[in-house]
Amino acid sequence: MAAKPVIIDCDPGVDDAIALFLALASPEHLDILAVTAVAGNVPLTLTQANARKICELAGRPDLSVYAGCPRPVLRPLVTAEDVHGRTGLDGIELPEPTMLLQQQHAVNFLIECLLNVRESVTLAMLGPLTNLAIAIIQQPQICQHINEVVLMGGAVTHGNITPSAEFNIYVDPHAAHVVFAAGVPLTMISLDVTNRVIATPERLQAIRALNTPVSAAAIGLLEYYGAFDMKRYGTAGPFLHDPCVIAYLLQPDLFTYRRAYVNVEITSELTMGRTVVDLWQRTNYLPNANVVDSINVEGFYQLLTQTLARF
Ligand code: BDR
Ligand code: CA
């Protein structure tokens, strides 16, 4: 089968970086048209530079990285340095990137690219949904050229930034509202699923044993970022949220999902950014999303380790 055309929108971010490694090592499955950066875990000046650093480390300086929106649609930017460190990639030191940032704004790139593609494109969304929402508002026809939006975000049960909301959706709930209402094929991989994907010491050891510059970087990053999750959640290691999106694209049979209607709370401050998931059809709205409800965690780590071994 031909490689699937994909754009990866991200806010690296440690788990974004691991997701990028997974994608960049899979060229026969994923044809990465571009990486677009958004403000999220850290400000945009850092996320776009981090995206380029990761591409270079992964031996893909040929990829195009675009910077998108520096802030959410309405709300002030909330960042997560407590989780990802001051640089967004704490735990390792990477050289300043030599690959240039593309001049075009990520939103304009998304529009131009999607309007001109022959084959519809899959969007792997690893951060707040600002870039995509603005692109959809500016040029709604792009929706016809989106094969699927696969996003890490939302929570059916508990949030991680507030009791009700997951970080990516909370940071830009208005953008998420636009994307969920856009009528595009959409798969949501929520915290309920990604919180099961714990990088235990044994799983980290398997990655460490690959003994490559990329595996060493992955371990440095995950050891730093792991400290936060282990302390807050009492887990044996960190959650690998964003790599689940790429794993879903590479090996969808690792996951199951249910169709459901999902809407995003944008009114109440108490529950701002909550993804309200109508699993029991308590509304009359038709389902607008595949809501992933299970993952084969062992299969995920096998895929991750085998794929990282290619570097
Ligand atoms: C999400 O929030 C970010 O901190 C991570 O990179 C991930 O995309 C998890 O809630
Ligand atoms: Ca992210």
Number of H- or I-type helical stretches: 12
| Large-scale geometry | globular
Mean pLDDT across all residues, rounded? 97
CATH topology: Inosine-uridine Nucleoside N-ribohydrolase, Chain A
Q: How much strand content do the residues show?
A: 15-25%
CATH architecture field: Alpha-Beta Complex
Number of strands: 9
Heteromolecules bound: beta-D-ribofuranose, calcium ion
Number of domains: 1
Describe this structure in words.
- This protein is of the alpha/beta class.
- It has one domain: Ribonucleoside hydrolase-like (Inosine-uridine Nucleoside N-ribohydrolase, Chain A, Alpha-Beta Complex).
- It contains 12 helices and 9 strands.
- The chain has helices at 14-24, 44-57, 81-84, 106-116, 130-138, 167-171, 173-180, 191-194, 201-208, 213-233, 243-250, 297-308; strands at residues 4-10, 30-37, 65-67, 121-125, 146-152, 186-189, 255-264, 275-278, 289-295.
- A 9-stranded mixed sheet has the order 3-2-1-4-5-6-9-7-8, sandwiched between helices.
- Helix 1 links the parallel strand 1 and strand 2 (30-37).
- Helix 5 packs across helix 7.
- The mean pLDDT is 97.
- Calcium ion binds at residues 10-11, 13, 15-16, 40-41, 126-127, 242.
